Each structure stands twice: as structure tokens, then as C-alpha cells.
Amino acid sequence: MAFYYTEPSRTFNEFLLLPNLTTKECTPQNVDLSTPITKFKKGEKPAISLNIPFSSAVMQAVSDHHMAVALAQCGGISFIFGSQSIESQATMVRKAKAYKAGFVVSRSNLTPSHTLKDILELKEQTGHSTVAITEDGSAKGKLLGIVTGRDYRISRDSLDKPVSEIMTPFSSLIVGKSGLSLSEANDLIWEHKLNCLPIVDENQNLDFLVFRKDYDSRKNNPLSLLDANKSYIVGAGINTKDYKERVPALVEAGVDVLVIDSSDGFSEWQKDTVQYVKENYDNVYIGAGNVVDKEGFRYLVEAGADFIKVGIGGGSICITREQKGIGRGQASAVIEVAAARDEYFKETGIYVPICSDGGIVHDYHVTLALAMGADFVMLGRYFARFDESPTKKVKIGNNFVKEYWGEGSNRARNWQRYDTGGKQSLVFEEGVDSYVPYAGSLRENMDRTLHKIKSTMCNCGSLSITELQQKARITLVSATSLVEGGAHDVILKESSMAAE
To answer: Which sites bind K(+) (predicted)?
Structure first.
């Protein structure tokens, strides 16, 4: 007969953290939110750790190369969505990896024979006001000059004026030589009052550009998640159907971490995909999932997964539970899988990080997920609200919103995520098409969220995620205590009145 769980399926809303002693050293600035994303042996360090416990969801409406760069600057990781052509996804990975901490591969390049019209069209297309002029128009060609907005006047210069007559020629440029340090490059920028310093090799070929504005950016992004080459660490989603073609292209593009994007990861298809990656690539890491119990965790870990994603049906635009009756309350899923992770670590000495994916509505739910055993969280709706997400900002009534749709919706056309070996199309939807309130920039909102998490951890007497997991005291709450926890028995002022 069927097996029945006697304990109800719990959500994060049903729990609260109890405070521990807050010592004088427990202040938000002392809290370390670094956390592993790849498995590691006891006594060793993980190959990749996040500086904040956040990843953005593998979704068309959330994670493209712009989000990948923005979140990596904050210390987290994006998984660029896989429900697109292999070529376009690889291009997004390549663009994100091209951003270096200080050293930037030129992405706007022309030849001397181009015209002012070409300069203006390229600026409109890329938003870049600095254009490198190389012999062949490539990012790594022989540098012949630079064009900036100060080199031409649209009101006076003819659109067919050749770039050769506009550019600042190489002979007049201050350049750095390949191999100099970022500190040395910045010294040249400040000494010569430059906005941009080209870096060239011994043959005058362009290597990188270093911008003055990036100096402030680096100071403002001390937690940037970087690889050994000072490029941002980038993730990408894959499926279990075209992985033999998609994975090689993503690896060639420079991807650091892969994750299988699926609503239910407890499958032989995922095992085959993980084993393919592990057998063919030594330094590429792969997460698998999603699972909601010990059995699913064990199956994917034994297949070789580097981290496990937890959660089915808890996302704000996911209707898997409604459509199929499959899933589990996110808190219950995290609690059981975290226990399985700890049990596996005791048996083998191998620690496999887990990611809580779904079910997070409020910022404090992130702290709860971490306290319950998650190493990091994956969020969709949270990131979809920001300027850096790829969707349109539209005005409905008096409010701005951003479009947000699930990978299981007809709009996403992502049948591979839900395929179980049958018809190659989406027979029914497991996600919806919707809007989320526009919230501004990622950095502004992320800073607020991180401060809340750190403050709560201090209330729990913890200065790290590991310490929080060891010390946290968690209680179930009743329906009436939920009411008690919010504003009640008062007449709230209108927000417009409060602003005045």
C-alpha cells in the first residue's frame, strides 16, 4: 500500500526563529555569509564558494548575462536560462565572462574605414561611448585608435565622415602593456587623468580596456564573485535532452557551474546527464534536482552531483502541485534533505551543498531556509522585479510592474524541463504568465535584504551560516500567532500620508 507521512507538509510561514544571546561581537558587519556551492571533502575547501547565499533562477524572465554580472558583483551567482538556443545561451555566458574585474574585453570595435554613422549606430546598439578602432575591427586586433563622445560633434560632423578622421590615433594614446597589474593600470589612469586605458601586447594588439569608472565599481563591490582570471563566475541551466550538444558549447564559452533545470530531478535522465558531465569534464561543476526527500538526494549525489536543488511546486509562478498533485511544503523538504546531507557527510566525509529553491516570500524566509540547513537559496520572483532582469517594465494604472512568467508556462515553451519521455511539446502548463511590482535596482534591494539576514543572525548569536545551522532554535507557530506577528489593532496611515 502507499506510504503516508504523518507529519504535515510545512512551509516557511509556519516557523519562527527564537533569539539566542547576542554577544557584543554579534554585529551585522561581523557576519560572514560565504557558503559553498560545490561538494568538498572534510578538511578541504570547496572549489567554488559564494560570498552571499543567493542564486537567481534558471528562467527567461530572470537570468540573462546582465543579471549574471550584477549578481556576481554582489557575491552571488546567476544560472543563465537554458530554454533558448545553444548558440544564444553560449553567447550570454561569453558576454558575462568577458566582464573582468577591471580588465574588460572591448565589446565595441570598428575599423578606420567605418563612418561616424557606424559609431552612432554602435553606440545605440550597445550603449558604449568608447569604441576601439582596430585594424580588422575585432576586440583583439591591432589597435589604431580610440573614439569617444569627445571626438565628434553630431551637429557639425557629417555622418559619412570616416572614423580615421575622428579617432584619437594610437600615437596620441597613453596605453598600458599586457601583464601590468590592476593597481599599475589605475596609477596610469590617475596620473594621466584618463577615462580609459587600453592594454596592448608587444605587437600593439588590443588585450583589454581599463576604465576609470570601474575603479569606483571595484571599491563598491568588495564581495564580487571572481574566478582565477578575475572574470565573474557564471552559471548556466541545462536540460536532460540536448546536454551532449549544449554542455560542450557552454564549457567552451567559459561557464563555471551548470545546473539541470527540472521540476522533478529524481529521474534516470538526470543521472545520465550528471554522469556525462563528470566523465567528460574535470573542472566543470554540476548541480541537480529538484528533490524533496532523502531518497532523491541520495540518488543524485551518488550519480555525482556537486550540489542538490530542493523544492517542488513552491515557486510563486509554479502550479505543479495544482496541476499534478506533486510536491512538498518547502520547509519540510529542506529539513529532510538537510538531514540527509548531514548523514551522508558523516558516512563519507563528503559535504554536498543544498540549495533551497522556492517557497520564499519574505526576506526572513531566507534566514529560515539557511537555519534549516540550506547552504544557499535560488530565487525567481525576487530578482524578476529589478532593473537587471531581462523583462519589460510596463505601467499598469499608476504602478510600474515587470513581466514574469514561469518556465512551465506556454510562453516559455520549455517542454524539456517537464519531459518524461513522451511527446516533445508542453501538453499542459505547470507555470503561469504574470507581473511583479517593479522594485528598482538589484543592489539597493539586495543590500537591504542582506542587512536583514545579518541582523537576524545576530539575534540568533551567529556570525556565519554554519554557526546559524548549529545554534538556531526554531518553533512552529499557530494561525493566531501569525496575526499577532503583524501590525494589528491599529488604524494604519495611508502610505501617501506617511510619506508627507
So the answer is: 313, 315, 318
Query: How far are the Cα atoms of 50, 180, 286 from residue 38, in angstroms, in the given order?
Result: 10, 32, 8
Cβ neighbors of 271 (< 8 A, separation 6 or more) are 299, 300, 303
C-alpha cell at 483: 496575526
Place of cell 533551497: 356
Is 10 a known active-site residue?
no
* Contacting residues for 484 by C-beta, under 8 A, at least 6 apart: none
In the set 26, 74, 196, 318, the catalytic residue is 318
CA atoms within 13 A on the CB side of 103: 20
DSSP state of 28: G
Between helix 243-253 and helix 86-98 the angle, nearest 10°, is 20
> Among the options 94, 246, 385, 417, which is catalytic?
417
Nearest-angstrom CA–CA distance, 164 and 167: 6
Give the start-to-end residue ranges of the domains of the chain: 12-100+224-477, 103-212
Annotated binding-site residue? 313: yes
Q: Is 315 annotated as a binding residue?
A: yes
Contacts of 38 by beta carbon, 8 Å cutoff, 6+ apart: 46, 47, 48, 257, 285, 306, 307, 353
CA atoms of 333 and 291, how far apart (whole Å) = 8
- Does 289 show up as a binding residue in the annotation? no
Query: How is residue 230 written as a grid cell?
Result: 578575475
Q: How far is CA 359 from CA 246, 333, 354, in A?
A: 30, 11, 15
Coil/strand/helix, residue 192: coil
Task: Please tell me the predicted confidence (pLDDT) of residue 431.
Answer: 54
User: To which H or E segment does residue 247 belong?
Assistant: helix 243-253
> 3-state class of 5 per DSSP?
coil
12-100+224-477: CATH topology:
TIM Barrel (3.20.20)
285: nearest Cα among 221, 337, 227, 358: 227
Q: Binding site annotation covers 311?
A: yes
CATH 3.10.580.10 given to domain 103-212: yes
Q: Which three cell numbers stand for residue 102?
A: 577591471
Amino acid identity, position 479: A
Residues of the chain with pLDDT below 50 are: 412, 415, 417, 422-423, 426-429, 496-500
* Amino acid at residue number 485: G
Q: Would residue 318 show up in a list of annotated catalytic residues for this protein?
A: yes
